[in-house]
Design goal:
Elements (H helix, E strand, L loop, with lengths): L6 E7 L2 E7 L2 E6 L4 E6 L2 E7 L3 E6 L5 E5 L4 E5 L6 E6 L6 E7 L5 E6 L14 E6 L6 E7 L5 E3 L5 E7 L8 E8 L5 E10 L7 E3 L5 E4 L5 E6 L2 E7 L4 E9 L5 E8 L12 E7 L9
Antiparallel strand pairs: 1-24, 2-3, 3-4, 4-5, 6-7, 7-8, 8-9, 10-11, 11-12, 12-13, 14-15, 15-16, 16-17, 18-19, 19-20, 20-21, 22-23, 23-24
Length: 290
């Protein structure tokens, strides 16, 4: 059985992305407004301003990380977002930063679009990558030859990374989920396909405690839960909305938050005009590293 129709809890956004549950609240970015936001209940506050933030995450010590996509900087900030402590320049590794996940070690995996994967361009080639930042060594590329990599997550046991990838070649009719095994040093190997999205994009995603993967399908107009390569649950949106990204949170980690946006003119993400955070309840909870 699939969850019910999601209920909007926050609006007034343009391009909400990368929701992350942390310290009793949902944190996310509004890329087009340059904002990092914190949603507690139905109260939204702006905690930081950046050029074009594409992702937010938290290290075990509470340090907030923000991927500044267009400037290709990874900022380490105060836990409340009040100021930047340090910025790492990743411009030598990728033309543009996109999504990010922070693992149990506090290491950040950031995916990067290739030169033709930015903005509303729909013809992508395999020149995207994943960059690993451990903060005690030089950042390095751990996966190459990806087509417009997007949503990214790490499994509850810390052993598998999954990233969304557009179907290679020509206009993008669909996407797939790629998995990698994570080595002790953070390197990625054993690349394999673990899910197919026939219509839409593999946008922001998250794992649940059973290893299921919730992923937004963008113009597929729904969030889907993959288990062992099959879609077992769906959260359908209204036809005029895109499903951008998913996160599990709430006091019992059974609230599924979905970042959504009204369909942009001509499908161009640079022209989003309205976005929301919506929620529904699910049976399988998320997880938290301790």
């Amino acid at each position: 059985m699939s969850p019910g129709v999601p209920t909007p809890v926050a609006g007034g956004l343009l391009l909400p992305e990368c929701p992350r549950w942390h310290d009793g609240a949902l944190w996310l970015v509004d890329m087009m407004r340059g904002s990092v936001l914190r949603l507690a209940g139905d109260a939204m506050e702006r905690v930081g301003s950046f050029d074009r933030p594409s992702a937010v995450g938290f290290r075990p010590d509470g340090t907030m990380l923000v991927a500044d996509g267009r400037r290709r900087l990874l900022h380490s900030c105060e836990p409340d977002g009040s100021g930047i402590v340090e910025s790492l320049d990743l411009s030598m590794l990728t033309p543009q930063l996109n999504d990010m996940v922070v693992d149990r070690h506090g290491w950040a995996y950031v995916d990067g679009f290739g030169s033709r994967g930015a903005g509303g361009v729909r013809t992508w080639t395999a020149d995207g990558c994943i960059v690993l930042v451990t903060f005690d060594a030089t950042p390095r590329v751990v996966a190459r030859d990806l087509v417009a990599p997007n949503g990214i997550g790490v499994s509850p046991d810390g052993g598998t990374l999954v990233v969304g990838e557009a179907v290679p070649g020509g206009r993008v009719p669909g996407a797939r989920l790629l998995a990698f095994t994570i080595a002790e040093d953070g390197s990625l190997f054993d690349r394999r396909v673990v899910g197919i999205i026939p219509r839409g994009l593999g946008d922001g995603l998250c794992f649940d405690s059973e290893g299921g993967i919730w992923v937004g399908t963008a113009w597929g107009h729904e969030a889907q839960r993959f288990v062992a390569g099959e879609v077992l649950e769906r959260v359908a949106l209204e036809d005029h909305k895109w499903a951008l990204a998913c996160a599990l949170g709430g006091t019992d980690l059974r609230t599924l938050f979905v970042c959504t946006a009204a369909r942009p003119p001509n499908g161009d993400p640079a022209r989003f005009v309205q976005g929301w955070v919506e929620l529904t309840r699910v049976d399988t909870p998320g997880f938290a590293w301790t």
